[in-house]
Design a protein that fits this description.
Pfam families: MdcE. It contains eleven helices and eight strands. By secondary structure, the chain is an alpha/beta fold. Strands 1, 2, 3, 4, 5, 6, 7 and 8 form an eight-stranded mixed β-sheet that branches. The chain is globular.
Length: 234
């Protein structure tokens, strides 16, 4: 589903979201309140310019519309892989985006991430996964690292990783595996997108359940336990 169809289904003509250089920005009227919409489209690679543009949109929302909920729309092929962005400090620009989202949360903005198409690698880590809750459409594609790249990093044979991915969501791409791990809270029904957004906004005001969801769903069994042990030892 493209972003225009998604927002039209949620609000009809009740939005003014525009796209510039594959970055989405605008306002959506939903259930009687305005939401800031920020994100990317067309599988946009996230380089320095796009990371800073999204961070600017988040910070402008914090400054101009205190407390306004933020909907982060995710469609990215990951970080921009080119020398120029590396030399300009892509890691710092993407960290700045993540910190801008965290600042908004600390200032009382509820933040919902939605993977509506594709979410890969660092472009996902500093946007949708930084939200209070991250949801997805059932047809979305999510992965942080392809198995060949994972094999190079971990020094494990790709065949072994493929074998592990059949039973362990941590090693496997796919939206269902991210639901199992708790990284994605829920999948929205394409037939009732408004209900999905309404539930996500309600959940965004609650304590973070990602580690607990991962344990209950069997996709990430130890994270919640380890977190509790660290809290108890502190």
């Amino acid at each position: 589903m493209n972003w225009q169809a998604l927002l039209d289904a949620l609000a009809g003509p009740g939005h003014d979201v525009q796209v510039e250089d594959e970055v989405l920005r605008g306002t959506l009227r939903f259930d009687g309140q305005d939401l800031a919409v920020i994100g990317t489209t067309d599988h946009a690679p996230i380089g320095v310019a796009r990371a800073l543009a999204q961070a600017r949109a988040v910070l402008d929302t914090v400054r101009d519309h205190p407390g306004r909920p933020i909907l982060l729309l995710v469609d990215t092929q990951g970080q921009q892989l080119r020398r120029r962005d590396e030399m300009l400090g892509i890691h710092r620009a993407m960290a700045h985006l993540g910190k801008a989202v965290d600042l908004a949360r600390r200032r009382g903005h509820r933040i919902v991430g939605l993977v509506y198409d594709q979410a890969l690698s660092g472009g996902f880590l500093t946007s949708g996964l930084m939200a209070d809750v991250c949801d997805a459409l059932p047809e979305a594609e999510i992965r942080v690292m392809r198995l060949p790249a994972m094999a190079r990093v971990t020094k494990l044979p790709e065949e072994r990783l493929a074998e592990l991915s059949r039973d362990n969501p941590v090693f496997a791409p796919g939206v269902d595996n991210y639901v199992a791990m708790g990284g994605v809270r829920a999948l929205w029904s394409p037939q009732n997108l408004a209900a999905g957004l309404r539930a996500a906004l309600a959940a965004s005001g609650q304590p973070d359940r990602r580690a607990l969801d991962g344990a209950e769903r069997g996709g990430r069994k130890l994270a919640a336990e380890v977190m509790q042990r660290v809290r108890s030892a502190a």
